[in-house]
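WARN no homologs supplied; continuing
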Amino acid sequence: MSAEATILELEAARCKALTDANYAVLGEMISDDLVHIHANGSCDDKRGYLEGIAAKLEFLAVSRPDVTVRIFGEIAVATGPMIQTVRIKANGATVEMDARATIVWRNEGGSWRICSFQATSVAPH
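OK structure emitted
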């Protein structure tokens, strides 16, 4: 399987891990030195990201249509739309998110892991 196809499969698995609230699987997909920049501009490391989403959000739907993957040796960059529906645990509100995301995957000893994530909200038209 090509590296591009592997990353696309991993992206699908990442979306499923979010909707299944399977943070153990998600944690295995993330590098220990993760830098995760949320669409609102806040930044988390691996621990902060995993703890924050587990405590604050329920992912009802996550999709990555039309992702483009570029490979640069041991680095893969996946860019494209990210559509999410989340429930805010604190108040039960449901939020639809239309964003563009760049996810950097790094091959760490034969396993691809996310080392950088940047999401940007798409302004309503």
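The longest helix spans residues 3-19.
OK
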